[in-house]
Specification:
173 residues; alpha/beta; 7-stranded mixed β-sheet; 5 helices; 7 strands
């Protein structure tokens, strides 16, 4: 798995975009911006839509925070489009298709079954990984916690457990 401080790999994948188009997206295109990249195992499953909807509901908050939100699974961009149109509903961020498994392998987050574990990466504008969270396949994660972590990392300050934007930072001696 990529470690904290590592630079993310230069990978290009097809993506299903919120406007319905499918086009290639390169991770290096987002240099100069904060990036939140989260992975789910497969489309048309049970826990994944709860996470995707939660991230989509907060997409405006990520945008206001100056971060680009991207999601990915080992399904194709065409499968993402079919899922959006036939069950998932509208999604407000690009959904990367990783049928080649280049993203999953590049980030080191493949499960034994060949899909991605539920992993979330927060990347700074220089392309360095600042936060990694990974869960087993059956346990969803919190989009709100990802947003809180983004804000804490963007502050550049010492932030206490459960710190929220607007609260004081930890005093240093």
């Amino acid at each position: 798995m990529i470690s904290i401080g590592n630079t993310i790999p230069d990978i290009t994948c097809e993506a299903y975009l919120p406007d319905g188009r499918i086009e290639p997206i390169s991770l290096t295109h987002y240099r100069g911006k904060w990036l939140v990249l989260f992975f789910w195992p497969l489309d048309f499953t049970f826990v994944c839509p709860t996470e995707i909807r939660a991230y989509s509901d907060l997409s405006h908050d990520f945008d206001l925070s100056g971060a680009v939100l991207l999601g990915a699974s080992v399904d194709s961009a065409h499968a993402h489009r079919a899922w959006v149109r036939h069950g998932l509903g509208a999604v407000k961020f690009p959904m990367l298709g990783d049928v080649s498994r280049s993203l999953v392998q590049g980030f080191g987050i493949h499960a034994d079954s060949g899909v991605a574990v539920r992993a979330t990466f927060i990347v700074n504008p220089e392309g360095r990984v600042m936060s990694i969270a990974a869960n087993d396949l059956n346990v969803g994660r919190s989009a709100r916690e990802t947003l809180r972590l983004l804000h804490a990392l963007q502050s550049g300050e010492l932030t206490a457990c459960e710190w929220q934007p607007g609260q004081s930072f930890v005093a240093t001696a």
